[in-house]
Amino acid sequence: LGQQRSPSRHPRARLHTLRSRLVPACMPVVSQASHHLSNRAKPAHSRPGAGSRVAGPRVVTRRTNFVRSSGNTTAMADDGVSFVSAAQAKEIDEKLMGPEFGFSIDQLMELAGLSVASALCEVYPPRSHSRVLVLCGPGNNGGDGLVAARHLFHFGYQVEVCYPKRTDRPIYNGLVTQLSTLGIPFVDAETLRGGDPLVTTCDVVVDALFGFSFTGAPRAPFDALLELLNPHNSPPPIVAVDIPSGWSVDEGDESGEGMRPELLVSLTAPKLGAKTFKGPHHFVGGRFVPPAIAEEFELVLPQYMGSDQCARVSGLLTPGGGGFGFIKGPTVGGVLMKSPANESAEEAKRPPGYWDTSSDEDE
User: N or C, which end of the chain has less CB nearby within 10 Å?
Assistant: First the structure.
């Protein structure tokens, strides 16, 4: 009690002392974490003790999603996602439904339709876009649309379906029965063509008319339906399934006068024609691709987050779809290559337009 207490030190002095003690203590931890993250960014075959199952070196560049690869059988875009041709898409489907992987056509339709409905719901929630018109063609793309219509009904949308050329096969008949038992109305093409503009009768149109196997010019009544979706008719927002109908699967909108969907849901992997897609929202629906197929075709796909059935390739998340965010990084066989999700939470919250793609420094 009799001792005299020393005067208090200045707050800045105390902070300097604390910093000088903590920073050296933390450096080993920071160094280990940095080494771990850097090692994760390298391809598996380049890490010590790892196997070499991935064919060809892959380098992920800093701050971009561009992936370089030698011997790729698929085309690569600047965002690092694979684009496949119509022939490659056909081969992938045949592999999936072959004895090695055991998928069935109705199973793939179900997964595709659910992906389309999930992407639509993220971008156009039912509270703001409750009325959905689904245009279905006679093939597998139309089947995807029928499945999507059922899921959209259960998601809370008011759904109408136009299915003018019905395919008399058990799988398609069953999908029609499922919609009928839900009370989902079917409208014919003539009613749509002679009625009020689509923008006054629905909030979103799903284009499930033609898929990657379609070639040639559309015939009636599909030519009239495509005309309704032409930009000069000011249609409501269009959601295209796999590839916009009327576009070349490999070349895109060759005429420059085709429909302009706002949302494209590529199935399994984006098609070459999707490189010309300029809409604000591009998703991939295909959370079923086995790693063996991804490696065989050297597919680089977006990262699926959580339990999502679709993954964003480009564009920003809308306020109705859960806030703003960045595109998700690519994967090889389901392994995350580059994504804002593996960066700090603070970086992921940065405003639109922040992402810096000027650096080409290899990680």
Answer: N
DSSP letter string over 91-145?
A: HHHHHHTSTTT---HHHHHHHHHHHHHHHHHHHS-TTT--EEEEEE-SSHHHHHH
Cα–Cα separations (whole angstroms), residue 151 to 114, 117, 119, 144, 179: 6, 6, 11, 11, 10
Q: What is the DSSP code (8-state) at residue 252?
A: B
- Amino acid, single-letter form, for residue 87: A
**What does the alpha-carbon distance between residue 211 and residue 132 come to, in Å, rounded to a whole number?**
20
Phi, psi of 219 (to 5 degrees): -105, 170
- Greater confidence (1 vs 85) lies with 85
Q: What is the pTM of this model?
A: 0.69
- Residue 146 burial (C-beta neighbours within 10 Å; 0-12, 13-18, 19+): buried
pLDDT tens for each residue of 156-183: 999 999 999 999 999 999 999 999 999 9
The residue type found at 337 is M
